[in-house]
Design goal:
The complex is a heterodimer of chains A (about 110) and B (about 425). Chain A is an all-alpha fold and about 110 residues long. Chain A has one domain. In chain A, about 75% of the residues lie in helices and about 0% in strands. In chain A, helix 1 packs antiparallel against helix 4. Chain B has 14 helices and no strands. At the A-B interface, helix 1, helix 3 and helix 4 of A face helix 1 and helix 3 of B.
Chain lengths: ~110, ~425
C-alpha cells in the first residue's frame, strides 16, 4: 500500500529551503516591507564592491532556492500521482466487486 | 479530472528579469516575496488535491466497514475476499431488511386499523373539534412561527370544509331523501313525498327561485280560491233553482192533454240545459275546493320544509361561529365573523333551500373585498341574482378571508 504523502505548508517549505541557503532571505517574509528593504540597502560604510558582492550572493541564493524548490515540488507531485493511482485502483476493484454480483446468478 | 501537469509544468511563476547590475532593495524584497507567494499557492493546490484523494480513500474504507465489521481482517485478506463474500452478505442484508419492513408494515396496519376504528366512533363534530385541538397544539409551542400558524389554520379550515360538506349532505338529505320528519319537516297530508321534496317540485313547476315568493303566490292563490268558492256555490244553487223550475214546467206540460209537441220539446231542452249548468258548476266547485286544499297543503309543506332548513342553517351557523371563535381574533377575521351573521326570516329560508345566501350580502362582500376577493364569480355568487352558485367556491373565498387574517398576525397567540 502506497503511504499517504505529507506536504509541508507553503511558509514552512520556503523557510526549510531558504534558511540553509541564506538566512537573511529566509527571514524576509516575517519582516515589514520597510525592515525588509533595509536589509537589502547599502549599509553605512559598506563599499560599492562589497555591496555588489552581497547582491551577487543574494542572486545565487535565489537561484539555488529555485532549483531546490522545483525539485521538492516535482517529488511531491509524483508522490501524489502515485497515491492517486492507488486510490483509483481500489475504487475500480470495489466497483467491479459490486457490479459482478448478480442476485439471479446467486 | 483535469490532466495532471508534467513535472516541467510545475514551476514557479516567471520571475522578473534581474537587473544586470545592482538591483534596488525594493526589487529584492519583491523577488523574495514572489517566491514565498508561489510556494504558498502551489503547495496549497497540491494539498487540496491530496485531501480529495484522502477523502475518497476514507470513503472506500468506510464502505468496507459497513459490509463487514471486521474490516481489518478484510483488509488483510484483500479486496478479492470482500468481493467474493459480498453476494452472500447482500442476500442476508436484503432478507433482514425485508423482515424489518414486514414487521413495520404489520405494526402500521395494526395502528391504522385501530385509528380507523376510533375514527368511526367519532361524530362529524368530534372530528372537527379534534382538528381544532390539534391546531391548538401547534400554536402552543414556544416561538410560534408564521408557518406553524398557517399549518394550524389550514388544518382547521380543512376540517371546516369537511364538516361543511357533511352538512351539505345532511341538507340534501333533508331536502329530498329522508324519512326523518325532524329534518324534512313534519308530515303533511295531501302532498306526495316529503315537504322538502314537494317544495322543490312546486318551485320547479312554478318557475320561481325563491321560497318566499312562492309562499306569497301560494297564499294569494289560496285566498283567491277561498274567496271564489262561495260565489261558485251561489251560482250552482241558482242553477239548481232554475233546474227545479224547468222540471216543474215540463211536468205540468206533460200532464196537459192539449200540449203542443213543440212546447214540450222546448221545456225538455230547458231542463237539459239547466241540468248541464248545475253539473258544470258542481265540477267547478269541486275543482276549486280541490285547488284550495292543495294550496293549503303546499303552504303547509313550504312552512315545514323551511322550518327544517332553518334549523339546519342555524346549526351550520352555530358550528361555524364556534370554529371561527377559536381562531386568532384579528381585525379582518372579526369583520368576516360580523359579515357571516345570518339573518333569520325570508333570506335564511332561501339559503336553506339553496337558492340565495341569506347572509347580509353587502357586509359579506365588504369583508371579502377587504381580503382581495372582489370577483363575485370567484365567490361562487351570481351577481345578478345573489344566488350561491358554488358552495365550494364560497367556502374557498371564506378561507381566503381567514388566511389573510392569519398572515397578518405578527405573533399569533392562543
Amino acid at each position: 500500500m502506497t503511504p499517504t504523502p505529507t506536504i509541508l505548508d507553503g511558509r514552512a517549505l520556503y523557510f526549510q529551503i531558504m534558511a540553509p541557503i541564506e538566512p537573511d532571505l529566509a527571514n524576509i517574509p516575517n519582516l515589514s516591507p520597510e525592515d525588509a528593504a533595509a536589509i537589502f540597502s547599502r549599509e553605512e560604510g559598506e563599499t560599492e564592491e562589497a555591496f555588489a558582492a552581497r547582491n551577487a550572493h543574494y542572486d545565487e541564493a535565489l537561484a539555488e532556492y529555485d532549483r531546490q524548490y522545483r525539485a521538492y515540488m516535482r517529488a511531491k507531485e509524483q508522490e501524489v500521482q502515485q497515491f492517486a493511482s492507488t486510490v483509483e485502483q481500489r475504487t475500480r476493484e470495489q466497483e467491479a466487486a459490486v457490479l459482478n454480483f448478480s442476485p439471479l446468478a446467486a | 479530472m483535469p490532466a495532471k501537469p508534467t513535472p516541467e509544468e510545475i514551476n514557479v511563476p516567471d520571475l522578473p528579469q534581474q537587473a544586470p547590475e545592482v538591483v534596488t532593495a525594493k526589487d529584492r524584497v519583491l523577488q523574495v516575496q514572489q517566491r514565498f507567494d508561489a510556494a504558498q499557492s502551489e503547495v496549497f493546490a497540491l494539498q487540496q488535491k491530496l485531501d480529495q484523494l484522502k477523502f475518497i480513500q476514507q470513503q472506500l474504507l468506510e464502505g468496507q466497514a459497513l459490509e463487514d465489521p471486521d474490516a481489518a481482517a478484510l483488509e488483510a485478506e484483500g479486496i478479492d475476499a470482500a468481493a467474493r463474500d459480498m453476494p452472500a452478505k447482500l442476500d442476508a442484508k436484503i432478507e433482514e431488511l425485508s423482515r424489518q419492513e414486514q414487521e413495520k408494515r404489520a405494526v402500521m396496519d395494526q395502528t391504522n386499523s385501530r385509528l380507523e376504528a376510533l375514527r368511526k366512533q367519532l361524530s362529524p363534530e368530534d372530528e372537527l373539534f379534534l382538528a381544532l385541538d390539534q391546531a391548538s397544539s401547534f400554536m402552543k409551542k414556544e416561538n410560534v412561527t408564521m408557518k406553524d400558524a398557517l399549518k394550524a389554520f389550514l388544518l382547521v379550515l380543512a376540517a371546516i370544509q369537511k364538516y361543511f360538506k357533511y352538512l351539505t349532505g345532511e341538507l340534501d338529505k333533508a331536502m329530498g331523501k329522508i324519512t326523518e320528519p325532524a329534518k324534512t319537516g313534519a308530515e303533511v297530508p295531501g302532498i306526495t313525498g316529503t315537504p322538502a321534496e314537494h317544495t322543490r317540485r312546486i318551485l320547479r313547476e312554478s318557475g320561481e327561485t325563491s321560497a318566499t315568493t312562492l309562499k306569497q303566490k301560494k297564499t294569494e292563490e289560496r285566498d283567491r280560491l277561498q274567496a271564489g268558492i262561495p260565489a261558485i256555490e251561489k251560482s250552482r244553487d241558482m242553477a239548481k233553482g232554475g233546474l227545479v223550475t224547468a222540471e216543474e214546467r215540463l211536468k205540468t206540460l206533460r200532464a196537459k192533454s192539449d200540449t203542443k209537441t213543440d212546447d214540450l220539446r222546448t221545456a225538455e231542452s230547458a231542463v237539459d240545459t239547466a241540468r248541464r249548468e248545475v253539473d258544470q258548476l258542481n265540477r267547478d266547485l269541486a275543482d276549486a275546493q280541490k285547488k284550495f286544499e292543495q294550496a293549503k297543503a303546499d303552504l303547509t309543506a313550504i312552512d315545514s320544509a323551511v322550518a327544517a332548513c332553518e334549523q339546519m342553517q342555524v346549526r351550520l351557523k352555530d358550528v361555524l361561529m364556534q370554529v371561527l371563535a377559536k381562531l386568532p381574533a384579528t381585525g379582518d377575521l372579526a369583520k368576516a365573523l360580523a359579515a357571516l351573521e345570518v339573518k333569520p326570516g325570508a333570506n335564511g329560508i332561501d339559503i336553506a333551500l339553496g337558492f340565495k345566501t341569506g347572509m347580509d350580502m353587502p357586509k359579506l362582500l365588504k369583508a371579502f373585498n377587504t381580503a382581495g376577493v372582489t370577483n363575485l364569480d370567484t365567490l361562487g355568487v351570481n351577481a345578478a341574482t345573489n344566488e350561491v352558485t358554488s358552495p365550494l367556491k364560497f367556502i374557498e373565498a371564506m378561507q381566503k378571508v381567514a388566511l389573510r387574517a392569519v398572515t397578518e398576525v405578527p405573533k399569533p397567540t392562543v
